[in-house]
TrEMBL record:
Pfam families: Ribul_P_3_epim (PF00834). Catalyzes the reversible epimerization of D-ribulose 5-phosphate to D-xylulose 5-phosphate. The active site is at residues 31, 171. Its EC number is 5.1.3.1. Pathway: Carbohydrate degradation. The keyword rRNA processing does not apply. It comes from Nonomuraea endophytica. This is Ribulose-phosphate 3-epimerase. It is an enzyme of class 5 (isomerase). The lineage of its organism: Bacteria, Bacillati, Actinomycetota, Actinomycetes, Streptosporangiales. The gene is rpe. Its cofactor is Zn(2+); Fe(2+); Mn(2+); a divalent metal cation. Substrate binds at residues 6, 62, 138-141, 171-173, 193-194.
């Protein structure tokens, strides 16, 4: 069970300090938005490069951009540990996922809430992490969408049939009152923005979220 706090809810003027505030994080989740794929604009490669110099926590880049085929390899080349592209945006996902891996990063593939996962079964061999959005992408602090839970279960079944190595990440509205449902459905990497950086003690919030995820029943009743 891994926790990836999203710096979207952190203080952008103090990113190095905000990274240091979560030494118990497995990853730092960085939301790159271009105001085309989603109606919000955040940050890009220069900020990721600066953050990589400022922290030893691996960077988990979530690219919510229109042309990930053009931009994703540069994030892997810069040293991000994981680079995730959206299924709805990529025009050549197999090529781009392979480029990400060839550059030494984990290849992530993200699906919006309404995007079916079963159509991507044949691509599982190209993917290190499936990101299932549990809000419509674009903003932090939105309400968790329960409607995605059956898809998390379906994704876990597909991944198990495929050997079980692929991580399943959930992103959006993940907090103390929703994380157990996600874990029980089969997620094992949890992005949390407001539930970490919106609290007075981000480090303690991560420990709490991790404990809840670890104590949730495993999918299908497995131990
Ligand atoms: C939303 C982003 C999320 C966001 C989550 O499009 O992808 O990573 O930071 O924020 P919370 O945890 O507040 O829903
Ligand atoms: Zn995200």
């Amino acid at each position: 069970m891994q926790i990836s706090p999203s710096i979207l809810s952190a203080d952008f003027a103090r990113l190095a300090d905000e990274a240091a505030a979560v030494p118990n994080a497995d990853w730092l989740h960085v939301d790159v938005m271009d105001n085309h794929f989603v109606p919000n604009l955040t940050l890009g490669l220069p900020v990721v490069e600066a953050l990589l110099k400022a922290t030893s926590t691996p960077i988990d880049c979530h690219l919510m951009i229109e042309d990930p085929d053009r931009w994703a390899p540069a994030y892997a080349e810069a040293g991000a540990g994981s680079v995730t592209i959206h299924a709805e945006a990529a025009k050549a996902p197999v090529r781009t996922l392979r480029q990400i891996r060839a550059l030494g990063a984990r290849a992530g593939f993200a699906l919006n809430p309404a995007t079916d996962v079963t159509q991507y079964e044949d691509l599982l061999g190209e993917i290190d992490m499936l990101l299932l959005m549990t809000v419509e992408p674009g903003f932090g602090g939105q309400r968790f969408l329960d409607v995605v839970l059956p898809k998390i279960r379906r994704a876990r079944e597909l991944v198990s049939r495929h050997g079980g190595q692929i991580w399943i990440q959930v992103d959006g509205g993940v907090a103390a009152d929703t994380i157990e449902r996600c874990a029980e459905a089969g997620a094992n990497v949890f992005v949390a923005g407001s539930a970490v950086y919106g609290t007075t003690d981000p480090r303690a919030a991560i420990d709490h979220l991790r404990a809840l995820a670890e104590s949730a029943p495993r999918p299908g009743g497995a131990i």
